[in-house]
Write a structure and sequence with these properties.
Layout: H1 6-30, H2 50-66, H3 71-87, H4 91-106, H5 111-127, E1 132-133, E2 136-137, H6 138-151, H7 160-177
Antiparallel strand pairs: 1-2
Helix pairs in contact: 1-2, 2-3, 2-4, 4-5, 6-7
């Protein structure tokens, strides 16, 4: 970053984002599989699965939304990324963008925004605790895995959240057993 500057790094990452979205549109139109991927009729371009691709898109969308130049083009690119995430049914990636937008809006209130953010998160979990996203509730997606991690109790189901939580539990178990 020191050699090229923050703006040059941002421009490079933005170009990578544009190429990824372009490849996703190409994959959507022609329904083909990139080599070395697990293709499940979703948009994953060169990532192994669609959730990995959606996480990469979701990690860059906040930068597009706060960038001071080319606001309308950046918002359009962010919208395309969000549409890909919705198409891939990547719930956690979509939730991360929603939380970013909520906290971005609340940040305009300075210190009051921090208080409103804390209350907002609590209210979201209380009100939408049993709201289902693709078969799982918010509680099952965001809170329940911590209980399993702290008790080192693995899940008996399979799926994105369950597999990642089990991987962490197995890693922690092996770490504790190696002492």
């Amino acid at each position: 970053i020191k050699r090229f500057g923050v703006q040059a790094v941002y421009q490079h990452l933005r170009l990578v984002y544009v190429v990824m979205v372009g490849l996703a549109i190409f994959q959507f139109i022609y329904s083909f599989e990139f080599p070395n991927t697990l293709y499940r009729n979703t948009l994953n371009i060169y990532y192994w699965v669609e959730n990995d691709f959606s996480a990469a898109l979701a990690s860059f969308i906040p930068f597009l939304l706060v960038a001071p130049e080319k606001k309308s083009m950046n918002r359009f690119l962010a919208l395309l990324g969000i549409l890909v995430i919705i198409y891939n049914d990547s719930r956690i990636a979509l939730l991360s963008i929603v939380f970013f937008l909520v906290f971005l809006l609340l940040n305009r209130f300075k210190r009051l925004g921090y208080v409103l953010s804390a209350f907002g998160v609590i209210i979201l979990f209380v009100v939408f605790r049993d709201y289902k996203l693709g078969g799982n509730t918010l509680y099952q997606l965001l809170v329940d895995p911590f209980g399993h991690i702290f008790t080192l109790t693995r899940y008996m189901q399979y799926g994105s959240v369950y597999d990642r939580t089990n991987a962490l539990i197995f890693g922690m178990t092996e770490l504790f057993n190696s002492w």
